[in-house]
């Protein structure tokens, strides 16, 4: 089976509304053809429900599966008894146990951690647990990172210098306790890559991969397996990618690299006349400080509200520190 082209949904239009129309056409109201939609997180399901409600659809909705759930389904086949998910505190406790064991033969770890209280270890345990999950997700080989002692915090230096041994001990102790982590689930799913779970199999039902931009290493491997088996990748992006990825806007470089990496073709999900690319207006306000720029923004928003009372404005801030001043200058704010 030849993999299907990526479907390009023009970024001039609402993505999930257009996607819902495609899903509805694919399913034709049939329970047997109920689409599976794999998305990055839980949020898209709420908007898909709203999109179906707007068109008066009252049948069975597509099954929306967040990425973590997809990975968990794939990981189920890795063992007869699926391990329980370890909480963050459990992971910290197991890492502390690993480091305690390794300290018996590692003077550097012993110097930093032998007398460290649990409360002091927790911040380091959180960082280390997140790092371990990231390594699992990226399918990165284990190796220690050696730093001169005066270039990093001594505690961080001791952990990085023993990273390979810590990861090996951590993986072993998790399995011994019948536990897994979100990151380790990626490794367990990867070990089952040759067997697509029944629920995710594109040969059984239409499978769509939607809402992604960049992928971790394991995500890339698993989603590509689904695509090669018949799943459809949907990108909300510059429609120019359907003609030639090289003509895409620089901001969609991750989508271009994705197409190139998988040697995929692309086509528009909608007819070209179904959307337009209106000329954009850019206004520059001169100001000696951001307060004067925000004052100009307030005047512009006030005028926009007078011209179009039903319009909605979005303000995108370049820095978190601008949030409070921007709120101060919103039209109608007395304070």
Q: What would you note in describing this structure?
A:
The model has no long low-confidence stretch (mean pLDDT 87). The protein has 335 residues and is of the alpha/beta class. The chain has a six-stranded parallel beta sheet with strand order 3-2-6-7-1-8, with helices on both faces. Strands 4-5 form a two-stranded parallel ribbon. The longest helix has 21 residues, at 118-138. It is built from 13 helices and eight strands. It starts with 5 loop residues before the first strand and ends in a 7-residue tail after the last helix. It has helices at residues 15-27, 43-54, 67-75, 88-103, 107-113, 118-138, 154-161, 163-176, 182-190, 217-228, 253-262, 290-307, 323-328; strands at residues 6-10, 36-39, 63-66, 84-85, 179-180, 207-210, 232-237, 266-268. 29% of the residues are buried.
